[in-house]
Amino acid sequence: MLGKERPVPLQLINTQRPDKVDTSYSWLAMYFLLNLTLTIYNKAILSTFHFSFPWTLTGIHTLCSGVGALAMAHLGYFTPAQLGERENMVMLMFSFLYTLNIAISNVSLNVVSVAFHQVVRAMTPVFTIAISIVFLSKRYTFMTYLSLLPLLLGVYMATVGDYSYTPIGFFLTVLGTVLAATKTVVTNRIQIGRLQLHPLDLLLRMSPLAFVQTVIFSWMKGELDEVVSFCKTDMSLKLVLALLVNGIIAFFLNYVSFTANKKTSALTMTVAANVKQVLSIVVAVTVFNTTIGFLNGLGIVMTLIGGACYSYVDLYEKNQRMRPMTPAMPLPSPPGTASEKEELLNVRIVS
Length: 351
Description:
single chain; 351 residues; mainly alpha; 13 helices; 73% helix; globular; TPT_transporter
């Protein structure tokens, strides 16, 4: 006669704890650190070597990002996916979106004041929400909307200044902001949607295309000829090494940015960009002795508080979504001996 099977204790959840380094907030922290580092480094190159060629600098960033991603593939950190003609066309359009976003931003800066440009760009989270609702049918809670208010108001106060613009400048600045929001949303969808590309794989495919496009834009603007003249008279080994280090930092920043976007969301990345914007002002004050007013300082504090509020709401809502479902009514106990019933009640939670 066969004995009764021993009952198995009920396990409510059985997942491994994530690596503390490989968390969304760890990647966001690295994003802030590398972004501010690159900002300081760019200013140092401009002031030390007078290398004021934005398109060329962007080209160096994309070239180093492509070479870095290719090296990581050869080292076995990821395996490039096999894409069809349609997916490769998506990569081409994404690289063009990346380059066009930079182009529109640079052009708009020439016809509006820096303060106006920063304030409009601070509205990127609003456009991100609108794009996500219209095209991706996403929904956000009232608390998410509420947490964005101090953030947007803080950026406005931190960048208060001469808000001068022309009609075409206003249009280009808003267009650049919409493109920035679209790029962030598309970056997220490429990595978590149907393609599900590794961040380095995305960087490998996007960077060479963006490099060619930046060279074309540089030639159209006349910057390429200026760079050739500069290299003939002022190029030095120190500047070459400085530009190489600058490109390496840009590679790691792009990788970290794509990974943080994948692990968080498009909205979180645009909020992080706003916080980074005011942190850049803090860096300018501490490193470059830039003078700001009381309202600017208050705006910086409010932006940081707004970023903290959004982070708290985002974390709380994620925890609510991940909370395991519990049955409304207890399950009936099967017949058996008293010891078996006690064992059935031995419910343990596996962390």
